[in-house]
Design brief:
The complex is a heterodimer of chains A (about 35) and B (about 500). Chain A has about 35 residues and is mainly alpha-helical. Chain A has 1 helix and no strands. The relative contact order of chain A is 0.11. Helix content of chain B is about 80%, strand content about 0%. Classes of the chains: A mainly alpha (about 35), B mainly alpha (about 500).
């Protein structure tokens, strides 16, 4: 738990969501080039 | 009239004038059913991404989800990964094949893939019934917001919603709807962006808010729900969004397969921003108002009492946009199912393009008016109606779409059994064992999809395969597309 009371259920979401969207676009670009 | 209400009326009137202007522009560019239902397949990735996001973000997000964060804190945010898993399945399996097929309605896919007019008719009928229930929830939410914030009669708010949304939908179809969706997504994000700093300033920042909420109940800032509870709800959202007809029909309107892929990614990015803001607003409202009569009132009270008149008005217009964009997408998919899949096939196969356009527009008015009556009866609360109808759609549609696009051997008898059996299994479980779900942990959507999958595989194995000519566009498309690319380059 961080000093401000919020844990990784809060901060972890932002990182996980950014990673998800970035990984998706990496796949989408590759798929568009026919891999 | 107070200056606050004058500001709100000015903002709403400006918004509605722009929306109706886009509707009239769409009307002037719509001559055929293809232009009305799929915008002549001209929608690009940014507008397409906003269309998909605006369709998914509804009254449930601004009212129900914000209220859920108010009540239970942070951990509900992880449900979004369930929704995005559904989008991922759609991007991998559903969207490319549907866009390559390039039909007008979702039932078109069912009719072609399974070589069956009966399966097409059943799909169209189930879409109309289940989405009429979904519309009921949206109308009910608009009535509740209007009566809570402005003291307006719910019926007046519902009639206002259908008059405005129905008008721009029937004028320009998907073409104008897509650009209105783009505007509405911008307004939703703007309203939320205005709310977050105001609320964080009111509570003194993130750290004091976290310390205060943690002192109320540590689960609010940590984990209120168990991983099993989060997984079960995520599964329901994922199964629904992987094959949601009101999203699938919008794939047809985009330029090509790659545009659809990018649009899904942009949509998920927009949802991440909106979901994060909605969570922070729910937490902030708990910090400012620890005890509200109903969590669903948190968003309305935020706009009416915490934000400035102009920012509050923009936030309420964002909420209106969330409801209108979802209603609009539902009207397009139900009217298309009626006009294109039922009327033009069963009643008047020789109808002209002008006649079909008229039937689409009349269907929007009629199918938009029917749920108003249901909404006035108040059969359940908004969030419950949204959740229940999404379980039914997943139960009858996930397997024929996702498995049907991945497995050549699926047949029309299998599809009919999967749709009817999945729907009935979900209904049966909802009416009986769903009440004790906390004991056995098995939800109606899991039963519905499992029954649908079992029936699809078993019945398909026992019946003759679908003709190869019908399967080619769905299963040989990758090869054809690569051959085409090689020839071009």
């Amino acid at each position: 738990m961080s000093a401000d009371g919020f844990g990784w259920s809060f901060y972890g979401f932002f990182g996980a969501a950014a990673a998800w969207v970035a990984a998706y676009f990496a796949w989408a670009v590759r798929a568009g080039r026919g891999r | 009239m107070s200056s606050d209400s004058a500001v709100f009326i000015a903002v709403v009137v400006t918004y509605l004038v722009i929306v109706l202007g886009i509707g009239i522009w769409g009307y002037l560019h719509t001559r055929t059913e293809e232009e009305f239902l799929v915008a002549g397949r001209t929608i690009g990735p940014w507008v397409g991404g906003c269309v998909l996001a605006a369709t998914q973000i509804s009254a449930g997000t601004f009212v129900g989800t914000l209220g859920r964060h108010y009540l239970t804190g942070v951990s509900w945010i992880w449900i979004w990964f369930g929704a995005w898993s559904g989008w991922l399945v759609s991007a991998l399996v559903v969207a490319p094949k549907l866009r390559r097929f390039g039909a007008l309605t979702v039932a078109d896919y069912v009719g072609k893939r399974f070589a069956s007019e009966g399966a097409r008719t059943l799909a169209a009928a189930l879409i109309i019934v289940s989405y009429t229930i979904y519309l009921t929830a949206q109308f009910q939410a608009s009535g509740e917001i209007a009566s809570a914030v402005f003291g307006v009669e719910p019926l007046a708010a519902m009639l206002g919603l259908i008059a405005t949304t129905g008008l721009y939908t029937l004028l320009g179809g998907v073409r104008s709807s897509s650009y209105v969706d783009f505007l509405q997504t911008v307004l939703m994000i703007l309203g939320l962006f205005l709310g977050v700093p105001v609320l964080l300033h009111t509570v003194g920042g993130v750290q004091p808010l976290g310390e205060y909420l943690g002192s109320l109940d540590p689960r609010i800032t940590q984990w209120w729900f168990s991983w099993r509870e989060l997984l079960a709800t995520s599964l329901a959202f994922g199964l629904t969004l992987a094959a949601a007809p009101y999203e699938m029909t919008r794939y047809y309107s985009m330029r090509d397969v790659q545009t659809v892929r990018y649009a899904i990614g942009i949509s998920m990015g927009i949802q991440a921003v909106i979901g994060s803001c909605v969570m922070i607003l729910g937490l902030g409202m708990r910090g400012v108002f620890p005890v509200l009569p109903s969590p669903d009132q948190a968003s309305s009270i935020l706009a009416a009492t915490v934000m400035s008149p102009l920012a509050g008005a923009l936030f309420l217009v964002g909420m209106m946009s969330a409801i209108m964009s979802t209603v609009n997408s539902i009207l397009i998919v139900t009217a298309g199912a009626f006009a294109h899949d039922l009327y033009a096939r069963l009643v008047n196969p020789h109808a002209s393009q002008a006649h079909l356009l008229l039937v689409n527009r009349v269907a929007i008015v009629v199918l938009g008016a029917v749920p108003v009556w249901f909404a006035l009866q108040r059969f359940g609360d908004v969030q419950a109606i949204v959740v229940e109808q999404s379980k039914f759609i997943a139960s009858f549609f996930f397997v024929p779409v996702v498995v049907g696009l991945s497995w050549r051997r699926g047949t029309k008898q299998g599809a009919l059994a999967a749709m009817a059996g999945g729907f009935l299994a979900c209904l049966g479980w909802t009416l009986t064992l769903q009440r004790t779900v906390s004991e056995h942990g098995v939800d109606a959507v899991e039963v519905g999809v499992a029954a649908s999958a079992l029936l699809f595989v078993v019945v398909s194995r026992l019946t003759p395969p679908t003709p190869a000519a019908n399967l080619a566009v769905f299963f040989d498309g990758d090869t054809n597309a690569r051959s085409h690319d090689a020839a071009v380059h």
